[in-house]
User: What shape does this take?
Amino acid sequence: MNINENYKNLEESYLFSTIAKRVSDFSSKHPDVDIIKLGIGDVTLPLCSAVIKALHNAVDEMGYKETFKGYGPEQGYDFLKNSIQDYYKKFNVSLDLNEIFISDGAKSDLGNILDLFDNNNTCLVPDPVYPVYVDTNVMAGRKIVYIDANEENDFLPLPDDKIYADLIYICSPNNPTGAVYNRVQLSKWVDYAIKNNAIILFDSAYESFISDNELPRSIYEIDGAKNCAIEFCSLSKTAGFTGTRCGYTIVPNNLTFNGMNLNKMWLRRQTTKFNGVSYIVQKAAEAVFTPDGQKQIQENINYYKQNSKVISDTLDKLSIKYTGGKNSPYIWLKCPNNMNSWDFFDLLLTKIGIVGTPGAGFGKNGDNWFRLTSFNTYEKTTEAMNRFYSLF
Ligand code: PLP
Assistant: This one.
């Protein structure tokens, strides 16, 4: 029996455990300090009332013989796929129902999709990066090449003809940098992918935070993308589903390589290895797309956006450089005086009791950068940024 030795090549992630340890060491020595966490990557507002009502109704349906549901379609119920199809029409993207696959979230599908690709493929990831893209490929022994996302390119790297890759990861709005590609920039990636016979794995988990109408919310807003891209989205940040679990992946019918169709392969993969998302959760997800649901989730997103504004206004006043904030829940700031991101972490913790995330945890290009998030309360965010302003 041989095991998958690629797991030996995974780097241990000490980021969040190190942060937790430093915070608890500090708190035990200074129990009087009111620590404010602006490193939170999870949502904090509860599910909206339209979703709660749908959940209750679906639970009741499960209690009667006439409306009880057993196994559903592995790729999701049509009622939810119809809602997603209509949602995409708002961005002038037309999807066939069979191109939409319902999942328990973007993270699973980002990992699972790799079943469709040969382990000899090379994948291209930006640095800094959401670590899931790297680790899922390390597990399969795939070669990874990095493209720099840095101050020079506003953390939005563009294709480089000298780099060859088969699988290209793009996350926009980006975690951790909050940067968002515009149409011209995304078109360059689409052209590059088509030229290289490559696939773009496009993570749009934060698309609902885009308020600038000029910025694309789906890669399919770009001509040609249906010939080269798979899109992963999630209700986690859009509608507070991080604990409820529901996402969707779009695999266009056009994607055929060496005579094999990726949509058909993904359907085969899902029907073999996945038994679908629960009916109750899919009913809750459907409610997100109703007029009431859309209005209510927008109120929550606006609440987080108000927090982003408090953070970015403070950074503007202090002339500290940052990306993100306006179309993303993340603010990625340059550590003042070119400080290293862990030193900056310690400075904020020990001087003003603020916790953020050191950029170094996302890649070498994050060494002098720092991530703040808008998921705390308005009151705490305001208090944190008042302290931040006084310190600098
Ligand atoms: N993609 C990005 C960039 C994320 O930051 C996250 C979660 O933080 C996910 C995907 C995972 O989303 P889900 O909760 O749908 O699995």
